[in-house]
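Below is the data:
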Amino acid sequence: MRNLTLLTDLYQLTMGQGYFSEGKSEQLASFDLFFRPNKLITYSVAAGLEQAAEYLENLHFEDEDISYLRSLGMFREDFLSYLKGMRFTGDVTAVREGEIVFPYEPILTVTAPMIEAQLVETALLTFVNHQTLIASKAAKICSAAGGGVMEFGLRRAQGPDAGIYGARAAIIGGCVGTSNVYAGKLFGVPVSGTMAHSWVMNFPSELEAFRAYAKSFPEGCLLLVDTYDTLKSGIPNVITVFKELRAAGHEPKGIRLDSGDLAYLSKEARKMLDDAGFEKAIICASGDLDENSVRSLKGQGAKIDSWGIGTKLITSADMPALGGVYKLAAVFEKDGTEVPKIKLSDTTEKITNPGLKDVYRLYDGKSGMAVADYITREGETVDTTKPLVIFHPVDVWKKKTLRCFTARNLRTPLIRKGKCVREKLPLLEINRYFRNEYAHFWEEYTRLDMPHIYKVDLSDELHALKKQMVNAYRQGGTGNDETV
């Protein structure tokens, strides 16, 4: 495993030396990692937590790291000596990977000595922001397609790590396979792929190219048909080769379309394949697709069975950054007393929720469908035997009374005293968890066009604390706030 301890912004280390000098290095602090609202975010799929846990467990400064920091001429020797012996000793509470999450909900909370908690901010955001972004994009594409989506983005990814962990996230979000062989090996997921246009162009004729490929891969043969002319050349040549395969005792898999009018071509190709007796041959489509083009194609009656999605998935082209943040929520006195912290702003959306928190998902007691999420002070109980009034955190006049409901705490321990306490799950099992949870959301919340805004509300106790701290600061300050 690579040592990623220096995968951080310089100011984490300069603040670290400052905390060290001020005697605050061992002060216990809690930070929340969450994301703010965005007009393109209807829901997100949490991912990257396994890599975050591995990073924290492996956190240590090697001799060459210390030498490099010394060469910058910025850090004192006593601080460098402190870093040399530092390990992550704190706790992390987090949602499961594959959990559906919404703005302001802490995906994870780090509670650790101040320097440790501060140092890990950048790397944790890197892991969680990127994979959550790609898993969320994959979920939207897979929902539009109704299944059968393969991740094909490695060559367009913004670097090898983005390609590898983007493929991982895409599987979490619903893709059934990846073209990325390294990711397939690393994460134990299906790999898929056939041929490029160069294969067809490298033979005297398209028919010879198809025959040569079928000879090498008689089982599951899937041929790319749009190198020259899909309907006049590609499909007729495919049918010829498919008949030859069948005569030899092999059943072909299908074709891939990569360009042109995919709706029209797929419908015509389907007719030609069916008329030739290849009703079970699948049609795969690729070529700069996303959830909007997939939905459009399906609306046009395209006869497409599976989808290869590359650039617009692996780069999340319409929203290339999640915008997750990592904010101080509390510090602790030596006796363990919690001192909540709040970040204030003239922009309401940037005011944070103070203190330690729990996040509950509330389900309708009859249908079992999710109706709201409920952020509380840590340790608050949700009494499901009594009616519960929930309200909008800003527009407090918007209220809803739940009378028959169940509640589930979304977060559980991930790390305790520096060690991961959560079982490492196979990637396909994480995907199954996501699909199960997704099924508990009404389509109104997950649809692409004008979705309902899912309710994420605060408990009375948390709302009162937040209001008290905001008012106290604006009336002269209390010292218990982290200002902009």
User: Anything to note?
Assistant: The two ends are 37 Å apart (CA to CA). Residues 121-145 form the longest helix (25 residues). The CA atoms of residues 344 and 470 lie 7 Å apart. The domain at 194-286 is CATH 3.20.20.70 (TIM Barrel).
